[in-house]
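Per your request, structure below.
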């Protein structure tokens, strides 16, 4: 089957040739258009030209772009450093003021660069006719700086079919006989300044893989990581830090980062470009500023001296982390440490100024307000105006705080987000459980609220969170362009770019459904008691929630296997990594725990049918290992070791040391086992379930519009008032959703509201919405999730723990009496971040098992 790649989101690096590229200036097209530039002709690509004096990062990307042309054309292309070597046409890659050919075009009025001059990482792509004698046409990729040139080059690479994941996920490149660039010019630049990832929790998976593949977590590995980030238009990284020291472990690490144009950083608790490991190998005394300040200052000075060792007066490019937490990323003290932290940062900035020989505010710095440090900020901790304040999420995908003041501060604001975490209530490191719609909802809100200087995400081992990384960095380039419509089509564009348009819709459906199912619970949170299995009565096995979950997983897996039949041999390695393994392995895990649950239930009754489930547990446990082994064998063992995270049978918050099969047993019964057949239980007549998107009426106002966001949460779609980041509204503004329902009998009624978890980012004590029936009083419902880093003691902390474990916030309200007949339920928008997924109207008042830990209810009107 021929693979076709026609889609492209212009701002995000993917495009639709039919709909966009051939009608858009300076864009990739696979047919000739008026005055278009012939990039590939009969499988022969034009040469690539760059200046011999160009920055090393520009030289590298020029050679990389030539390699991409070879991937697309099937033939190697020439690389020149002089235009005199060119006969007819060429691609010229360079930076303003650093490439004589480009500067000549500007001087001769053949190229205007006003749109990118002086901008951060901007680029312009232009088709220029008769640029120089004996050259008929040139494709010019010019950057305002070195990374501008890099992003412009890789933008074209992606559009002509070279996936950013061509190496890191083995995504195949289709060869093209002809490739054209339409006439004209276009330019682009990022909306978020620093955009990157944090490799973390990387033992044993990424470390074990890197040891086998590269001989260590070294420059060979980082060269591949840096290329991936740059191809995704990112520019920033916090390197792996579990017992590792980026600069000290391999001196070539520093050099390759500089040569490729990467901005280096260190994690939130590693100040002044020094790894935590380095303190334990080179530091003296305790990691305690009260008692060991002199040695700590000496240690930190060494980090800044290493940055400046490049010897050019500028140093290796770093976004320098300031601040301090306790040893091992713990709080520094049990009490408030505001004054201590302020003194620490003041002393760190003195070191920065002294070593760089320029004012501290001329060195980019970031201070991460992580866990208790955010509490200090909320209590008035002073932060220098030029330091970027990096707010964090709760480690589970809910941003804790966003700017409410000082939006024009020089250093601006940013967000540290998580796709992977080690901590309470439980580690999650094994597989992808991230919904891109959730990432969109949180980061869109962050952008609207002014967090635009730094976006960095904890990605664990990089694999298997390829899709959310792709989305996060794509969105970070231009958040304003990621509308709900583009969000809804993102996985289809991603699938088309990875596997071709013919399979794009099918694969996108698989990926979206996987995201919905996986988001229900982190797999590390699941065991054989997590979901209700139903009951056995009078020899009949009745279906419970667990049955319906594994039924969905098995159907998804069967659908995936049907799509797999159309995957080519060249595409299979990528398909296994990105689609098959995630679905099959998580489906298998659910089946194992389901079988374990029923084995225990039936064995307790001495029911011989327990033996059927006993064997199912043995088989699924063995299959888990087989799936992992298959992952490690694909592409001649390229990814051997990458799926070695333990993910079964947690008993506490931390990872077990090995995979452990659930404790099951066989039954010795006198009578022959009956057939294992499940029956549907009687439906609960007291419950009416309404999907949030199935509203009767939506009333908008104050610039807000109710919008259904598919694949957000555990319902078909979540309802959200957009745009996010807007102030609170009142009942008088009238912004509401209405749902018609019929009460079968007059009864006391409890209404449950299932929402996607959210934390009050304004620090106002919670998130509110209003509820009323017909034209009755409007009651205010408020929930307040309080993230914790340790034991969950307060109601708010318990509510948070419950919400992140179940990935939903359940609030409720009780009505003493709702009369029989037709009614209208109204839900009023009061605060931002109310993300409604589902409504359950329950006339059985004794059913309160889903009541949230904290839902404050009060009258707003009447």
């Amino acid at each position: 089957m021929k693979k076709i790649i026609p889609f492209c989101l212009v701002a995000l690096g993917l495009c639709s040739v039919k709909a966009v590229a051939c009608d858009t200036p300076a864009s990739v097209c696979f047919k000739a258009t008026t005055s278009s530039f012939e990039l590939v002709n009969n499988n022969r690509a034009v040469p690539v030209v760059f200046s011999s004096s160009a920055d090393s990062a520009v030289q590298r990307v020029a050679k990389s772009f030539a390699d991409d042309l070879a991937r697309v054309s099937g033939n190697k292309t020439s690389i020149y450093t002089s235009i005199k070597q060119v006969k007819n046409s060429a691609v010229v890659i360079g930076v303003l003021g650093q490439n004589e050919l480009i500067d000549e075009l500007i001087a001769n009025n053949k190229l205007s660069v006003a749109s990118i001059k002086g901008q951060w990482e901007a680029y312009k792509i232009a088709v220029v006719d008769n640029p120089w004698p004996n050259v008929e046409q040139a494709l010019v990729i010019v950057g305002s700086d070195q990374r501008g040139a890099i992003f412009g080059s890789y933008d074209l690479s992606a559009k002509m079919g070279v996936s950013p994941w061509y190496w890191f996920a083995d995504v195949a490149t289709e060869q093209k006989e002809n490739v054209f660039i339409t006439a004209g010019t276009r330019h682009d630049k990022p909306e978020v300044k620093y955009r990157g990832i944090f490799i973390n929790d990387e033992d044993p998976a990424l470390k074990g893989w890197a040891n086998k593949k590269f001989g260590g977590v070294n420059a060979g590995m980082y060269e591949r990581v840096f290329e991936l980030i740059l191809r995704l238009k990112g520019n920033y990284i916090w390197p792996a830090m579990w017992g590792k020291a980026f600069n000290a472990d391999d001196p070539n690490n520093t050099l390759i980062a500089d040569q490729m144009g990467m901005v280096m950083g260190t994690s939130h608790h590693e100040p002044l470009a020094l790894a935590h490991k380095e303190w334990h190998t080179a530091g003296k005394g305790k990691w305690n500023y009260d008692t060991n300040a002199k040695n700590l200052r000496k240690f930190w000075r060494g980090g800044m001296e290493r940055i400046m060792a490049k010897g050019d007066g500028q140093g290796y490019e770093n976004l320098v982390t300031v601040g301090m937490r306790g040893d091992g990323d713990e709080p520094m003290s049990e009490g408030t440490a505001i004054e201590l932290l302020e003194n620490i940062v003041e002393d760190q900035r003195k070191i920065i100024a002294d070593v760089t020989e320029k004012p501290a505010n001329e060195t980019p710095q970031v201070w991460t307000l992580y866990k208790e440090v955010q509490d200090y900020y909320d209590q008035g901790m002073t932060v220098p105006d030029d330091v970027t304040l990096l707010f964090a999420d709760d480690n589970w995908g809910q941003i804790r705080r966003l700017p409410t003041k000082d939006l024009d501060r020089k250093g601006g604001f940013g967000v540290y987000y998580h796709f992977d975490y080690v901590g309470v209530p439980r580690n999650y490191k094994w597989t992808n459980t991230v919904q891109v719609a959730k990432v969109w909802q949180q980061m869109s809100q962050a952008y609207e609220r002014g967090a635009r200087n730094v976006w960095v995400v904890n990605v664990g081992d990089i694999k298997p969170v390829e899709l959310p990384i792709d989305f996060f960095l794509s969105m970070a380039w231009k958040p304003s362009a990621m509308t709900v419509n583009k969000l809804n089509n993102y996985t289809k564009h991603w699938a088309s770019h990875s596997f071709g348009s013919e399979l794009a819709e099918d694969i996108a459906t698989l990926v979206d459904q996987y995201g919905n199912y996986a988001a229900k619970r982190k797999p590390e949170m699941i065991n054989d008691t997590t979901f209700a299995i139903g009951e056995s009565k009078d020899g009949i096995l009745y279906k419970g929630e667990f049955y319906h979950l594994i039924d969905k997983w098995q159907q998804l897996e069967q659908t995936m296997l049907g799509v797999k039949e159309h995957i080519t041999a060249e595409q299979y390695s990528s398909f296994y990594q990105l689609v098959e393994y995630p679905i099959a392995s998580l489906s298998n895990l659910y089946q194992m725990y389901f079988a374990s649950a029923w084995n225990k239930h039936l064995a307790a009754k001495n029911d011989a049918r327990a033996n059927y489930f006993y064997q199912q547990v043995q088989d699924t446990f063995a299959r888990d290992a087989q799936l992992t082994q298959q992952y490690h064998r694909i592409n001649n063992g390229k990814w051997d070791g990458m799926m070695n995270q333990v993910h079964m049978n947690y008993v506490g918050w931390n990872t077990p040391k090995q995979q452990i099969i659930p404790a099951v047993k066989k039954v010795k019964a006198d009578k022959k086992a009956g057939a294992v057949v499940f029956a549907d239980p009687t439906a609960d007549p007291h419950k009416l379930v309404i999907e949030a998107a199935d509203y009767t009426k939506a009333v908008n106002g104050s610039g807000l519009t109710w919008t259904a966001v598919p694949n957000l949460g555990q319902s078909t779609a979540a309802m959200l008032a957009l745009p996010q980041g807007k102030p609170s509204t009142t009942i008088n503004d009238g912004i509401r959703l209405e749902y018609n329902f019929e009460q079968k009998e007059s009864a006391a009624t409890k209404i449950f509201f299932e929402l996607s978890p959210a934390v009050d980012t304004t620090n106002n004590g919670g998130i509110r919405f209003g509820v009323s029936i017909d034209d009755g009083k409007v009651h205010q419902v408020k929930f307040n999730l309080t993230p914790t880093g340790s034991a969950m003691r307060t109601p708010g902390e318990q509510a948070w723990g419950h919400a992140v474990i179940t990935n939903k916030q359940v609030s409720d309200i009780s009505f003493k009496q709702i009369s029989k007949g037709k009614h209208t339920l109204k839900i009023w928008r009061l605060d931002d971040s109310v993300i409604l997924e589902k409504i359950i109207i329950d006339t059985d008042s004794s059913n309160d098992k889903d009541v949230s830990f904290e839902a404050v209810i009060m009258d707003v009107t009447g």
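The longest strand covers residues 123-132.

Regards,
D.
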